[in-house]
Structures are given as C-alpha cells and as structure tokens.
Design goal:
By secondary structure, the chain is mainly alpha-helical. The chain has one domain. Helix content is 70%, strand content 0%. It contains 5 helices and no strands. Helix 3 (56-81) crosses helix 4, helix 3 crosses helix 5 and helix 4 runs antiparallel to helix 5. The two termini are 23 Å apart.
Length: 162
Amino acid sequence: MVWVIEIIILFTLFTLMVVPAVIKNPLLMVHDYPTDIYEKAIELGLVKESHDRKSKKFIVISIITVILIGLIFGPLIYYFNGARNFLTGAGYTYILWTAVNWYDALILDCLWFCHSNKVVIPGTEGMAGYKDYMFHIKGAFKGMLLGIPSAIIAGIVVLVLK
C-alpha cells in the first residue's frame, strides 16, 4: 500500500511541477522538446543559455538534480519503506524513478504534450515533433539510465542512516 500512495504522490507532484509551468511558458521545458522544435526555437533566438542542452550550466543543473533526488529519496525510502541495505534502498528508488519516468513519457508526453495546443512554442506551430511519440518513448529509456545514479546515491544514504 505504501508503494501506491508514494506513486500517486509522485505523479501528482511531478504533474504539478511540469504542467502549469509549461502552460505558462513552454520555453521553460524546451530542452525536453523533440529535436526539430528545440532546434527551431534556437534558430528563432528563443532558447536561453540555461536551457541549451549542451551548455555547462544545463549539465551542472542536471547533475545536481540527479544527486538531490538520490539524497531526498534515500531517507524517504529508509523511513517509509523500511529499506535497510544498499540494494533495497537503490532498488526502491529506481522503481519509483522508473514509474515517474514512464508516467511522464506515456501520460504527460504522449497523451498530453502530443495533443495539446498549450505547449506549442510560437513560431513552431505545425512541426512534426509535436506528434513524435517515439521521441518520448526513446526519452523514457534514456530516463531509465538517468535513474541509476540517483538510485545508487539513495542506496548509499540508506547505508549511512543504518
């Protein structure tokens, strides 16, 4: 039952973090848009340096985020899920990460993003990327790899708390 509650909470938090921000300003998440749209936004001069996928600032923020997720999930998994060893802490964290990752790809990206006019960046209307389901599915597989460092950090946190 703890799993179900955690997943519902995580889906809700993730949705509340992403959807209102993208509706208000689609450029905030332009780094997650399909390549054709992202490149057109760069061409139009709409992409800030901090949103450039290749910028040092973006990479540093991404690394810090992955680390913070591990540091936050470690204690949560320890106290709420009863994880008491590295594998359990890392495994629980990775399962939760993967659930949110696929929720993002299938629900938010394939069902919402690919069908909502609210996410369209001015100047990119009608581009093929807005219906590119495979981009989001491939992104989910990449996201699964990104969950590994967070899971390792959470597993180490569980060991430290033990």
